[in-house]
Here is the input.
Amino acid sequence: MLAQNNMNEYNTENNEKQLQESQQYWDDLASTFDNEPDHGLRDTLIRETWTEFLKTWLPQTNATILDIGCGTGSLSIVLAELGHKVIGVDLSPSMISHAQAKAAAHGFQIEFHVMDAAYPQLSYQQFDVIICRHLLWALPEPEQVLQRWVEFLKQKGRLVLVEGFWVTGAGLHAEEILKMLPSSFINVSNQNLSDNPNFWGGSVTDERYAIIADNNREGITH
Here is the structure.
C-alpha cells in the first residue's frame, strides 16, 4: 500500500509539473499568438471563412457555447457576433487576458476562465455546443477527455472539433479521433479543411479537418 501511495503522489506531482510547464509555454506565446492568420483572424477573408464555417454547423442564434481552449478569444468573438452566449476557457492566464481585452474592445460580455480543459470545472449539461480548435491533440489521454466533455453537453448538443496532423508530426489523424468518440455521438461527419487556403491564410499540404457530432446521450445524474 505504501508503494502504491508513493506512486500516486509521484504521478500527481508529475502531472502538476507538466501542467505548469504547459501553462508557461502558452503564456510565453500569448503576445504573438494572433500573428498566425488563423489565430488572430485579422484578415477579412480568413475571418469570413471561419464565420461561414461556424454558421454552417451551429444553431442560428441564442445557443450556449463552450469555446474550450479558446486561446486569445478570436473564435469566441466570432461566436458572440453570431448571437451566441459564449464561455471561453484556457489554461493560460495570458491567453485569457488577451481574450478579455479583445472581447471588451468589441463590446461583448464573454465569460472567460483560466481552466484545465482536460478537467473542466463547469456544470454538467449546460452547453448546446462545445467547440474545440487545435487543442485535443495536445491533451493527455484524449479519449478520456472526450468522455468527460460529453457530460457538459445537453442531450442533442453538438461537438465541433477542428484538428489536424501537421507536417511537424504533431497532431491527431481524423481517423484516430473518430475511433475515440463516445458511443453516444450520432450524425458524425468529417469535413476536410485542407483544401481551402482561406482558412489558413495560404495553401497547406497537411491534414486539417473538422469533426462534427451530435450528442444522443440521456441525462446524466451526478
Observations:
- Residues 2-215 form a domain with the Rossmann fold fold (CATH 3.40.50.150).
- The helical segments are 2-29, 37-40, 44-57, 74-81, 93-106, 142-149, 174-180.
- Confidence is low (pLDDT under 50) at residues 1-10.
